[in-house]
Amino acid sequence: MEDPSSKEDNTGVLEVLEALKQASHELQAHPTRNPAHSDSPAIKALLELETQSDSVLSKDPHLSTLSRYVADLKTLVETLEKTRGHGLRSFLARRVSSHSISRVAGSIESEIQAWMDRESIERLLKGLKEPWKDEDEDEDKLIRLLTQFEDRVSQGFDRELQNLVLKWKAFSVLQTVLCEPKCPNRIRENAAFVVAALVRFNKDVFVGQVNMGDTIHALLEMKSTHSLKVLCELITLTKSPFVDEILCNEEVSKILTLLESKDLDMRVMALDCILEIGYFGRKEAIEEMLKRGLIKKLVELQRSEFGGDLIEMGKFEDDNQETEGKKRERREYKFLKNHPFASCVARFAVQLEVGEGLRQREKRAFKQEILEKVKEASVNDAEAATIIAEVLWGSSP
């Protein structure tokens, strides 16, 4: 159990560090306000915090460097005060001091962020490694930590943060939680979001750490729109190898089955996954989907109340008038929002045509196969003719 006094100490440290970070950021963000002058609000805030932070920072060895930077800042400001004058030497000395102050402020901000990242990862991993509890409060707290860490990772690449993640083996812990069926689904879903965020953060480093088979199985086993969203994103990020793994683990049928879900959002996310597989999938993956009746399912979705045809809106016409093109795009976007399965057969065919997974002759062969299966699945000649026209106009001959 966490010591309440320790928690209180951490809260106090965090408040001081947040204030220091904000003042340091202001010092760098508004150079036009002459922040390096000793009467600048940012300088005043930093100097006021210097006395308060001295006792706080000394308690944590990880903050010793930060404490030194804050002391250096005070010295630089005192030096700046002594160089007030109108001569060239005073002017140059002020410029040097101002630059040094801005640089130290940047170092202060970086050190604070590193401490916060370290604390965040430590608290998160401690929570994830504890036995799962039934208390909603504990679950909500862990989800908040996962969401905060996902937001931090989503801010963009940071080498120090990456080193912390690798040092603490955070990725493998998150993936273990994602694949643990005894863990509450809400926690698993949020762990999945963080896994995807880390792959986005640095694909070269973290793609290799994805246990693709277990991850795919876990995401599909949860059967939620959130887990499908992560699956779809991982397909986009890792491309053909991830699709190959879906095929090897015989998970294609599970995705196709979700097209028949009673939940509309689930069907929409399943279609998104299929479209991504169509773009990145190799011949074997496309063959498997077609063999398992994908085109028939898509025709049925297109025929449903949430389907329809985009062909009449001129989706596939060649129009050089940019303004008319934009108007059409807006109409299509509005239509697709209310009819997510509109022209889904042609949209799938286009994904194959423009995608990365197939050779040109394979694309032609699959196009012909799709046209044949459309004829088989259509209820009448008119329906078949409309869908076939969309497929032909939507991709090159």
TrEMBL record:
Protein's name in the database? Uncharacterized protein
Give the lineage. Eukaryota, Viridiplantae, Streptophyta, Embryophyta, Tracheophyta
